[in-house]
Every structure is written in structure tokens, then in C-alpha cells.
Amino acid sequence: MSLKCAIGLMSGTSMDGIDLAVVTTDGEAEVQRGPGSFTAYEASFRRRIEAALDDARTIDKREERPGDLEELEREITLRHAEAVKKFLADHPQLRAELLGFHGQTVLHRPERGVTVQLGDGALLAKETGLPVVHDMRANDMAHGGQGAPLVPAYHAALAKSLPEALGEFPVCFVNIGGISNVTFVPAAGDPVAFDSGPGNTLIDQWVSREGGVPFDADGMIASEGGVVASVVASYLESPFFGRAAPKSLDRNDFTLDRISGLELADGARTLAAVSAQAILAAATQMPEQPRLWIICGGGRRNPHIVGDLRAGAKGAQVILAEDAGLDGDAMEAEAWAYLAVRSVKGLPLTFPTTTGCREPVTGGVLTMPA
Ligand SMILES: Nc1ncnc2c1ncn2[C@@H]1O[C@H](COP(=O)(O)OP(=O)(O)OP(=O)(O)O)[C@@H](O)[C@H]1O
Ligand SMILES: CC(=O)N[C@H]1[C@@H]2OC[C@@H](O2)[C@@H](O)[C@@H]1O[C@H](C)C(=O)O
Fold it and tell me: Where are the coiled-coil regions (predicted)?
């Protein structure tokens, strides 16, 4: 068994910063999780990425970089390089062999076969002196897949090493990021996965627009409000929820259009309910009801989302990643480290049951430092 020590780098749809995590792995069952870090984007940079989503709408071929995108790609890459260099300086004992680089998604249009992550693998390799695997979504799309979610291969590996006391399959990992995605892991057989709906992105946009804060910290704003059931129902009527998996979302597929006229607190509480109900609706599209839900991503810190999930989980246990000995903030970055090792070994990153690709496919572009 040959183990590799990789660093994963994730700048997610919440656009809040760069998550970095170390995983030492054979790319299969052996997973040793290491330290990590988070480098926040300042508000003005977050706004710049948000504005870039508009520039990206006009992209036809995925290599196009209209408007600010070319300059922004360089800036995002250099910020990742700085995050890696600082982390390596803080952890001089670490012998990292490889970087798994997600970049920043600015457009995801699976129906057109286009997904664009800003991130220059060659520049990152040059700046850090380390081999880089990036662009892990494209090959999946080229093989008929959605190009997302990719984290299920990692969820499936983690599920196999859960503490005995939690060993209740089927397990469902839920990542509540900007967008939420779910991975159903049966006791035997392939995981089933798909994007399940808006996670925090609508809440973030709402409290930012109506309250001038970037997110609803610990659901405090929502605590002052109530659920407006008609608005939840209106979101849940979206054709996305009726569509069978595989399916994936662009950050802008759901908007605040359905929620005008509410008070700040009612809106925050209602959108937390939308996030939870979207996840519960996803359970109806799984092969069977999960017996254990493991909640990851920043949305697990919103007690209203988690509370609504517990209330609707039909007797299944709903726990946070930390209750399973995992790290709910680092998991996506860990996944990108794990997937980078799978990529260099030529192992599949995605499966027909996770993205709809025609057969299990590997992916990613490896760039060696000069
Ligand atoms: N203390 C908190 N209380 C409530 N929500 C929080 C808290 N901390 C973070 N969040 C939410 O989590 C979001 C970040 O989550 P995360 O880092 O998992 O998203 P992401 O990785 O960017 O998204 P994706 O998984 O879609 O790529 C923030 O934008 C915020 O909405
Ligand atoms: C295109 C893209 O970046 N999609 C993200 C997004 O954020 C969450 C959800 O939508 C998920 O499908 C995906 O990220 C995770 C990490 C994934 O691919 O597994």
C-alpha cells in the first residue's frame, strides 16, 4: 500500500475563503486526516467574486475568461499559493507531495456540458514548487456526468471507518455549503449522490441584503423569526426537486425572488427551513431512508437547519460531523486531497450513481513544478 501526503484546497460556493486540509492516503480505504487552515476572503474580494459570476454567464467555451475573470483567476491562484506557503511554514515537519486544487466555481451548466473553476494549476505549481492536480470536474462531464458532486468518493471512504457505535447503514452525509449535496452510503455497493438544493447561499444573500451581515451567525437572526410555510412551499415547488438524480446546481439556480416582502428575521428562519426541507426531500429520492445522517459544512452551525432536519428525519439519528470524529469544516478540502491522490493513481473520481457519468471515470489535470 503506497500512501501519499496531499494538501486539498477548496474555495466553495459561499465564497468565504480558502479551506486547506491534509490527508495521507492510498486513495482507497486508508485515510489519515491531518491539520488544516482557513484563509478568509475580505468582504471586498467576496464581492468581486460575486460580480465575476455575472461575467461568467456569457461563457460559451470553458476556457474563455471575459471581463474580470482572467485577472481574478490569477489573484485567486496567488491567494491559494500564499495559503499553502504559510501553512507549510507553520508545519515544517509536513512532507506534502501533492496539491489537490479545486479553484472557484463561477459557472456550472451541466445541461450545456460546461463547468468553470477559476484556478491556474501551472501557476500554483510554480509558486509552491509542488505537483498540482486541478480541474477535476471536466472529465466527468466529458463522460456524460454532471461534473458534481465529487466529494461522494471521499464520503464513502469515511463511512467505512466510522466508529463501531455509529455503524448504522445506510449512512447519509449531508454537506450544507452554499449549495447542499448528499451522499447515501449503503452497507455494500456504490454510493448514491446528488446536489439537494440551496444550503446557505440564499440565507447569506438575504441577511446581507436586508441586514448588512455576511451570514446568520448561529442562526441568531432566524431565532427572532418564524417560518412562512407558503414561501417554503413555493421553493419546494421548483422542478429541481421533482427531477430524478443525477443532478447538480449552479449557485444562481435559486434566487431570493420567492421571498420578497418578509421581515429580516422571518426571512432568515424561512430560508433555514427551505434548506432543511430540501435535504429531507432528497431522502425521498434515495434507495431507502438513511438510518444515520452526518451533517457537514458551515450550515451545520445553523441550529434551525439542524433542528428541522432532526424533526423530519423519521427516527434516524442526525449527528454533526464532529460527533463522528470528523471535521465538518475541513471535509471538502480533505476530499480534494483524497481525490488528487486518486487522480494520480488513475482511480475513478466519479461513478454513474454519483454524477451520472457513463462509467466510473478518473479526472484532473496533473501539473508538475518546472
Ligand atoms: N456560525 C455559523 N452560523 C451559521 N452559519 C454559518 C456559521 N459559520 C458558517 N456558516 C455558513 O456556512 C457558510 C460556509 O460554509 P462552507 O464553507 O461549508 O461552504 P462552501 O464550502 O463555500 O460551499 P459549497 O460546499 O457549496 O462549495 C457561510 O457562508 C455561512 O452561511
Ligand atoms: C460546480 C460546483 O462547484 N459545485 C459544488 C457546489 O457546492 C456544493 C455543491 O455545489 C457540490 O456539488 C459542489 O461541490 C462539492 C464539494 C462537490 O463537488 O462534491
Answer: none
pLDDT of 340 strictly over 80: yes
* Cell numbers given for 197: 438544493
Q: How far is the CA of 129 from the centre of ligand 1 (A)?
A: 30
Task: Please state the rounded mean pLDDT for residues 254-283.
Answer: 97
CA of 97 to the centre of ligand 1 (A): 29
Percent of the chain at pLDDT exceeding 90: 95
pLDDT in tens, 115-137: 999 999 999 999 999 999 999 99
| Residue 304: per-residue pLDDT | 98
The pLDDT of residue 166 is 79
| Residue 167, pLDDT above cutoff 80 | no
Helix, strand, coil fractions of the chain, as percent rounded to 5: 40, 20, 35
The sheet with strand 179-185 has its strands ordered as 192-198, 179-185, 171-176, 292-296, 317-320
Return the ligand number nearest the Cα of 246.
Answer: 2
> Does the beta carbon of 332 sit less than 6 angstroms from any atom of ligand 2?
yes
Residue 108 has φ and ψ, to the nearest 5°, of: -140, 105
Distance 346 CA to ligand 2 centre (A): 22
Rounded to an integer, what is the distance from CA 229 to the centroid of its chain?
Answer: 28
pLDDT tens column, 67-86: 999 999 999 999 999 999 99
* Closest of 366, 368, 370 to residue 134, by C-alpha: 366
CATH 3.30.420.40 fits 4-150+331-367, yes or no: yes
- Expressed in angstroms, the distance from the first to the final Cα of the chain is 28
Domain ranges, ordered by start, for the chain:
4-150+331-367, 164-324
* 164-324 shares the fold of 4-150+331-367: yes
Q: Which of 59, 105, 134, 353 to mutate to test the pocket of ligand 2 (most atoms within 8 A of CB)?
A: 105
| Radius of gyration, alpha carbons of the chain | 19
pLDDT at 168: 84
Q: Which helix (H) or strand (E) holds 197?
A: strand 192-198
Q: How far is the C-alpha of 184 from the C-alpha of 186, rounded, in Å?
A: 6
ipTM of the complex: 0.98
